[in-house]
Design brief:
The protein has helices spanning 71-76, 87-93, 100-105, 108-114, 120-127, 146-149, 171-174, 228-238, 252-270; strands at 8-10, 25-28, 44-47, 56-58, 62-66, 131-135, 142-145, 150-152, 155-156, 163-170, 177-184, 191-199, 206-211, 218-222. It is an alpha+beta fold. The chain starts with 7 loop residues before the first strand and ends with a helix.
Amino acid sequence: MNLNTILEVKRPGSSEQIGQWRDGYAWLAGGTWLFSEPQVATSTLIDLDGLGWAPLTSTTDSLEIAATCRIADLHAFEGPPAWRAVPLFHDCINAFLMSFKIWNAATVGGNICMSLPAGAMISLTAALEGVCTLWPRDGEPREVPVVEFVTGNHQNVLQKGELLRSIRLPASALSKRYAMRQMSLTHLGRSAALIVGTANDKGADFLLTITASTPRPVQLRFAKLPSADELRHAINEQLPADGYFQDVHGSARYKRHLTYYFAEQIRAELA
């Protein structure tokens, strides 16, 4: 879609060149949402491509994913054999509903900043204990766990003009075993529930991440693998009946059922 309200496109070579933030500014990475509908309040796009961030930076301690990393680049990442959770990248990416154009243009950071309940990159990075690095317009960079970054449907902790720089996944999470379940009401439709469990060997440090069925990610952590009753009780403690997200992709009651059903499947698989 052409955006007929845009008067200027800035292409800074560094963040220092951006200057003071003004009303009407918008960050541009992949642009899959910006160019999907009219942006009547936007007059200036700031293209992040010129900042030249490496899409993926792997060390022995972590994997850093630049906010501008394309979905296709993340899908191509293999990682060392010890990082047993890397195949989860493919599983979550395949939960997207996207054309080949979006596949090669959409960014990890864009999906997270949209902060939709069914954001598959939110599901992925939250489940793998990701930490966001944010660049405020004035002030030092700050870090926020992905599970705390999204606060509701299309809501997050970003302040005016603040930029998501990267997401860091620790090697300790990447090395864990995982199990994932996802369901959509329609073939290739938006996720009604996307739930991921991770655990060390013998079920220690069991982490269940609930997304898509809830407005924001919900995590439950156990020192050891819980029983079925313990897990269901913990879900009830964190998620009352009115804590589920209802939309055209599924009723709250349906999503609650999926959450219980998939959580127990994941628990049993990782036992």
